[in-house]
Every structure is written in C-alpha cells, then in structure tokens.
Specification:
Four copies of one chain form a homotetramer. Chain A contains twelve helices and eight strands. Chain A is an alpha/beta fold. Chain A starts with 16 loop residues before the first helix and ends with a helix. At the B-C interface, β2 of B face β2 of C.
C-alpha cells in the first residue's frame, strides 16, 4: 500500500490546517476586490512586523514573484547572473527571458551557491555595446541543492554588487516601485484577494512559518541520520534545509519508487532528491528509511 | 450600518460554501503537483461533460485565460479587433500588448457588442507590410454593458471570421496546442493544483454554475423591476445578465454610496453599475431599492 | 511617356548628388567600424552645431528612430498618446507595441495635430492598476496631413506634459541614456558606419538640409497655386510643408495615375496626396498641373 | 606612419568600387519605395540564379538577418541551441532574447563548430512544461574561429534536426512566410530600397562575391604561411576562411598594435585575430609579417 505522504516535494503536501481554517473564516459577506480590503491590510502588516518597512504585493506563485521582480529591475539589454542549476535558469520555461527580454548568464556552481569569484569571472564587456550589460546577481536561499548561504557569503555578494552598480536579487524578494502595474500586467492580480491574504497572514502569525520550516528541516536531519546508517547510500550535499540528496545503487532506485514517489536529481550519477514538509512525521521517516534499507538488500 | 452584501461586483462576494467544502475535502495526504493528480483529472472530465472533447488548462484568473489564449493564437505583427469598452482593451494594464506584441484595434460598440459591419469597417490593409494584419475578433459574453450576444449574432461574426481567415476569440476560451508551455511561461501554473481543480469540479457539478448564474440573473431582473418603479432612475442598457446600468440624478449618487459600495460607470452621464451575485437575496434587493428611493427624495 | 519624377513621396526621389559625392569620397582605406571613426565624429559635431550639446546615434530609418526612442523612455505598463493618423499608430506594422509592450492610445486629430484639450481628455486612470499609465505625448512635425505645429502649440503641449510628469516625444528626437545598447539590440548598429555618417554630415553642411527642404516646400506652394486655379480640385489641408492634399472628382483619379504614380489618401472622400521633393522642378509642376487639368476635362 | 589597410576586420574595409559605381548608376529619377522597383527585382533574380527558387528580403545588417529569421521560426517557450562563442550568443547585446523571448542555450565548441554529439547532450526536457523546448540548431559558416563546416558535418546536423523536429538555422539564411511583416516590424524596411538592392545585385553579378571571398581567403593563407615562418608565433585554429588566429608572446602584442589596429581574441591566452578582406594586397601581407617579425625580436 502506498504511504499517505511522499518525499517528492513539499508542494505535494496539502494546506496547513490553520490556513484552511483561516480561509473558511474569511468567507463571510462581501469585501472589496483586488486587495483594498482589511484582510489584505492585516497580512501586509504581518510582513512589516517581520521585515520592517516594506511594501508587499501578493502574487500567485514563486515564478511570478521572481520574474516580476527581475522585470521591474531590468531593461532588456541587461543581463542576470545566476547559478546554472537555479530555478530561474532551468525550470521556468523561459519566463524570465520572455518577460524581461534579458539574457540570463549561467554560472557554474557545484553546490548551488554563487561566489564573488565566480560572479567576477562573468562580469565583463561593461560599456561594450555589443554585449549585454550585467545588472542583477540572483541567488536562491536555500539553493536547489538544499545548501544555505551563510550571512557573510550573502554580504560578500552584496558588496560586490554594490561596488559594480549591480543589484542583488534574493529569490522571492522584490522592489516596490511601480510593482502595482507590473503585477496586474503580469496577470497576477487576484480579484478575491482576501483569500490569498488570509493565507499569508496565518502563515506569518504565531510563528506558523517558523514552526513549519523548523519541523521540515528537523525531519530532513533525521532522514539524513537514517541514511548515514545505510552503507550503500551516500549523502551528496550538506543537509542545511529540508532536502536530502542521496546517491544510491542505480538498481535500487526504481524499487524504492514503486512505493514512494520522488524525483531522480541526476540520472547520470544516480542521485535522488528527498524532501520533507511541515506534515512529515518521525514515523514517516522511520518507515521510509526501513523500506530503503530493505530495497538495497537485493 | 453598512449592509453585508454590496452591488459593486460579483468579485466582492465570497466563495460558494460548496466550493469551500470541496477545498477542505481535498486537503488530505500528499498529491503530485502541477496538475498530474486525480482531482485535476476529475475537473477536466467535468469540462468534457459540458463542452465535449476539449483540452482544459487551469490558470489563476480571467486576465491570464484571455491573454494566454491571444498569445497562443497570434504573432506580433497581427492585430486583435475588439470593442473599445472591452476588458482586454481597457482593463488589463496593457497585458495583451505586452504578451502578444500585437496592436489591439478598438471598435466603437455602444451596447458592447461587435457586429459584422463594424468589424468589416476595420478589416483593411491586408497584405500591406506597413499595417498590422487582423487575426482575431475578440468578443465577451456577457459584454461589459451586461448585454448578451444572441446565437445568430455570434454565428454571423464566426462566418465573417472564417471567410477572412480570422479567428473568433470568445472571452475565456482557448486553444490547446502548446498551451502547456504558454501557461507555465505565463506564470500561471499552480503547484498545488488540486486546490484549483476541486473548485472548478464543484462549480461544474450538480449545476452549481447554472444555479448560481440563474440566481444572479434573476436577482438582476428583480432589481431592474424595482428600479423601473423609480421615476428619477433610468435603465440604460438592456438587462440580459447579472448587471443593471442606471442613470441617476448626479446629486443622489454619493448619497447612495454612503451606505452601498458600487462603481460609477460614466462620470459624464451619471450612470452607475449595480451587479448581483450568487448570494444576493430578494431581501437585499428590496432594502437597496428602498434606500435608493429614499435617497432620491432629496 | 512616364515623367522622370513623380509626386508620390519624397522617398521616391534619389540621393542628393552632394551626398553621393560624399559617399565616394569616404571610400578610401580602412576605418574602424561601428562608429568610432572620424567621419562619424564629424557628423556628430555637425549635429551639435545645429542642436547644441546633444548626443547623437545614427540608425537606419525613421521607424527605428521613433521606436527606439519610445522604448528607451517607457516601461511596458505605460501608454503613448498619439494622433490616430500618426505614423507610429498606423504605419509601423505594430513595431511600437512589439518593442515597448505599451499600448498606443489613438487621439482624434482631424488636421493631424494634438491639442492640450484632446490630450487631456485621454489623460485618466492615473494610479489605477487596471489601466495603462500615460507616459508619452508623441507628435510629428510636419504632421501626416502636411500641417505644421506652431511654436506656441508645441510649448502648450510641453507644458501640459511636464505638469503631469509626461514626456513630449517629437518624431525622430531621442534621449541618450543607454541608447548605445538600445540601438545595437534594436539591430540598428551599422558596422561600416562611415557611410551613414558622411551622408548626415553632408546634409547638415552648407545648409543642404535647409536648401532642400525650402525648395520642396516652395514647390508645394507652387503646386498649391496651380491646383487652386482648377475649379474641380479642392485643397483639403493647409499647405505648410511639402505635401498637397487634394479632393478630386472620383473618375479623374485613375486617369491621372495612368501617367503619374501617387497615393490616394482617402478612398471614401477622393482625396489624393501629392508630395514634392528636393529635386522637383517648376517645370515638373507646370506639366503635372496641365495634365491634371486635362484629365478633369473629361 | 599607419598603413592604409588594417587586419582588424573586413568591416574596416570600404565598399568595393564596383558597388559604389552601381550606387551612382541607380541614382537617376524617381523610383517607387520599399522594394517594389526594378532594381530590387533584378537583385532578387540574382539570388534565385544562385540559390534556386527562394524568397529574398533585404535587411540592414547581419544581426537583423539572424534575429528576424529566428523570430519567424520560434515561439517564446522554445530554445535555440548554439555554440557558446557564436555571434548570436555573445555579440548581439541580447537582441535574440529580446525579439524572440526564447532562451539561447550555449554549447561548448572549442573550434566553433557544433556536432551531433554536443547538440544531443543538450536536447532534453522534451514535453516537460517546466523546460524550454529546443526548436533551432543555429550554426555559423565560417565560424567565429575561422573554421568551416564540411558538407557532411552540416548534413549530419540537419539529419539530427529533422529526426527530432528541430530546424537547422544557418547564419544569415531565412524562411519567407510572413517575413514581409517581420522585416517591417523589425525596423528593417528601407524606403529607398534600390540603393540596397543594387549593392546586392552587383555583389552577386560577374562572380564579384566569389572573387572577393577567394581573394580574402587566399590572402589569409598567405598570411598563415608568413606566420608559420615566425618561431614565436603559433597558429591556433585551422585557417579555412579569411581569418588567422595567432598566439604571440604577450609583450609583443601592444608593439604590433602601435602600428596595426586589430583585436585581441583571448586576453588570457594571448591570441590575436587577423582578418583579410577583398582589398588586402600581397604587399600588405609582406609588410605586416615583416613588422610582426621585427616586433618579436625584442
């Protein structure tokens, strides 16, 4: 029998029960659309509690948060420097190029992280009209490999950026100037906005975001421990978030997938990706690890 | 005291309770993301029940449904013929131009409806490289004025379109070729798709869409009757959907708006727009009409 | 026998002989490409003689001069206000929309000229995220109807623009910031630039531009005089440049076109457009007027 | 004293004298604009003599020929596979991305040439909505390194392309469907077209193109011979066209550049690029080689 919870991606998990309750609670009477409502105002206030005096615009997904940010910060003759495995480079069906008109310049980053050295190597052609002009350094926290930039690593990139009149874009964060229009034109303005707002308000309240993330990360570390006890399995990236990347004997992978749905990260190197989410339980981990161990026995 | 329900727009209403129940019911266990799940398959099947053998792609809003359809059907040197009051021409912050690169050609349409005559008047410059080449006739059903195209009016436009190698685009309907990529690149692919799918499945089941629409339209006709009894108020467009457009003495409008939120449709002609929704009650109509009558007394 | 010179358009004329001489004179030895050469520097200096301290970028045609200027001045959620008969609205195959992503808002202008009143009528929706945001007022001097803005008409539009944070774009003029990249990306950078530069240098030297324009305008006034002597012909726009717009009996038009190539401006109103150029002679005018007179005799 | 002719680029050379004569000869009387003239028809006929039954559209430069071809062949969710040193990837200021909206995927190609193996390695993600969909393989003949694809190498790429429903784009060649509009919208339509047409007609007549190219290539081989006699200089790519790439002692490069203008191809590896053109003479080569030899003596 298939287990209720997989290790494929946290987007396979459902909605946190507290979020669902908030949706139901918001469903009373009429409320003005497009974000001029009290629910949205409360959600914005929550963001300011956490991030200081920021402007906040809700969009439908991470693709849009990133692409519209890049669009609002660039002109089409400029370029975005990013890791070659970054989501904006590989997994958005070309949306960044389509929206911005810019070239995205892929930078080698074996552990998913850009460094000042690798960025500097691609910073050239400045003032040459034949070349695109670098404008953005885009990083993702945590990276696609589950690794995490340390504060001083981010600071070094920010310093490099500011020295050379570049902007440092952190996946999901955005500038506010004219963003109102970028969002609408980018087809990301919800009419019944309150139902988006209450979700974010709930997530930012009572540390729900923190509790959920800490739990998922803790489960990932537990999974890492279990995996380390399995001789044929090898952890390939440092576990710093909610993902565990494991190299396995090729033959075992489909056997495990018969019961558990997850993605192969590298076909060539037999690396798989296992993700934990807010609802992963210790019991899920134990059962999964046991099944992996059995599958490796041959 | 403000009433619970306004007449501003059906997007001010909440979610139908049956839809909210469906959301809660879908929130169990893990499900694969991006639409390869059973919930989405069931919702697609519902569409095929209603529309025959169609491909279905869920997006986040009407802006996206229209813009991505137009984008998948056009090249940037082509043009879209549409009513000058149409939503795609006036209310999308330029998203159609941005996405398609095409010119939108506005056609005068006092009652919101295009005709073969007015379209034919703008069909010219064919084969002339200096001119954009008409490709799409885009209509909205019901129109922004609450009027409705009769079947033979749609048929006449379709025949004109096909005679001249144009496509007839009906607001919200789409072609499927490559739409998978247009949606993703258009930033409209939901990862937790099931929560979109179950809403559409519910709306298309047990005639919920029909019951809701018939109720809103019936309430609009009731409101129309009430308004016709008020001598100073004049219905300006035929009431064929869920909207009632009324010309009022200028001075009365802000007085009514003190209690009821709604939009002024034409500042110059003192026309207001009142919309009914699935949750509007007969009692709401009576109270509103009484308040309007009182406000007009001076 | 067909005459050597037509009245269709000044683009039917050849190159001024002085320009051709300059091309031949520039064809000696090797010169660095893309504009870093002495010929180009001299042409730029000529522009500064005439226009003061300006940056100058040569492109291949008027379409590019206008479209790249608009592109460098706008973001895609903004709008360009222009006359409905303006070249950028009707005759560029949608290039302005394609390059800028912006909506072009057509303004009625029977004589080709925008006024503060007609522009103000289309200046609305400011700050409303659903609407495109007006950013540019674009005018053409002389207009497509051969009329000319007076200095105080331009000044009034400029004042309106600056009051409302708009920019006034005069057909063919451009801002320099980053234009280097817009030009290259817009596919308008010539490698053997000297051959463009010497043409412009020559045109701006020894009043060649002024002599040529004055001559063409003088010929147009002579043509106007001749036409006014023909009872069945009616001048429809004030002749202020090098074009004469004439309403004729419908039947006569094809008869005249048998010998002279020119365009019908309005099929519905039987208006034709006759253009003079730097090489039109008085003799050309006399012969043409005589032929028109004969053709009208029946 | 600086020599009259450099080895920097053939775009530093002037216009062939026969082309200049053709320009002067075309400058008589009035001719209809935008390409509907006899000069253009004759130039098109010349292309059909050489290439068979093809449609021909003249544009202003190579950037436009390539970018508009790619634009007419792609939709924005597709991708273009090209060599990482290819002009479209590195030297067009992002024009391909801006016009097409597509991602360009750079492929390693040390000698400038794509192979079936390297292309196949980047052909993946087919049918996956998150990934751009490969559509074009773009090659340049001769490559940026002066190497040349052999007929069977082109054939192998074409066969791969057609097997996988891709198109093989050869730098500068184009499809004709709707190209009329792409050109105009791409700001590449010349009004006084005859002056472009006669240049191309002349180049394609009496083997002027062949004589010019053969001469430039012959001079490159002569230069290669001379360079091979200089012990400190090393030819780095096979000389198959009109360019010679030479590795030199770092210190000698600026000394040679004092007298001769040319580009350093690789700062890191001290490789310079020397190009020959239709007007390079044997004498130019001997003098240049002698100067290089002297500069290397220390």
């Amino acid at each position: 029998m298939k287990p209720i919870r997989s290790f494929a991606s946290d987007n396979n998990a459902g909605v946190h029960p507290e979020v669902l309750e908030a949706l139901a609670a918001a469903n009373t009477g009429h409320t003005v659309g497009y974000g001029d409502d009290l629910y949205t105002e409360r959600a914005r206030a929550k963001f300011r509690e956490h991030f200081g005096d920021v402007e906040v615009f809700f969009v439908f997904n991470g693709t849009a948060a990133n692409v519209l940010s890049l669009q609002s910060l660039t002109r089409s003759f400029q370029a975005v420097l990013c890791a070659e495995a970054s989501h904006i480079y590989t997994d958005e069906c070309g949306a960044p190029e389509k929206f911005t008109g810019c070239k995205l310049i892929p930078i080698e980053a074996p552990d998913g992280k850009l460094t000042v050295d690798t960025v500097a190597h691609h910073y050239h052609g400045i003032g040459d009209q034949h070349h695109v002009q670098p404008r953005i350094i885009s990083i993702t926290q945590a990276t696609e490999m589950g690794t995490v930039y340390k504060p001083d690593e981010v600071r070094a990139l920010a310093e490099f950026a500011h020295t050379y009149n570049l902007l440092l874009h952190v996946y999901g964060k955005e500038l506010s100037k004219d963003f109102l229009y970028w969002r609408k034109q980018g087809m990301q303005l919800a009419s019944k906005m309150r139902f988006i707002s209450v979700q974010l308000e709930t997530i930012l309240s009572d540390d729900l975001w923190l509790r959920s993330a800490q739990h998922a990360n803790k489960m990932a570390r537990l999974l890492e421990e279990e995996v380390r006890r399995i001789p044929q399995a090898k952890i390939v990236y440092t576990v710093e978030g909610n993902g565990v990347f494991v190299q396995l004997p090729k033959i075992a992978i489909p056997k495990i997938q018969e019961r558990y749905f997850f993605y192969v990260w590298s076909e060539e190197e037999n690396v798989v990706r296992w993700m934990c989410s807010f609802d992963t339980t210790e019991e899920d981990i134990r059962q999964f690890a046991a099944f992996v161990r059995d599958s490796l026995k041959g």
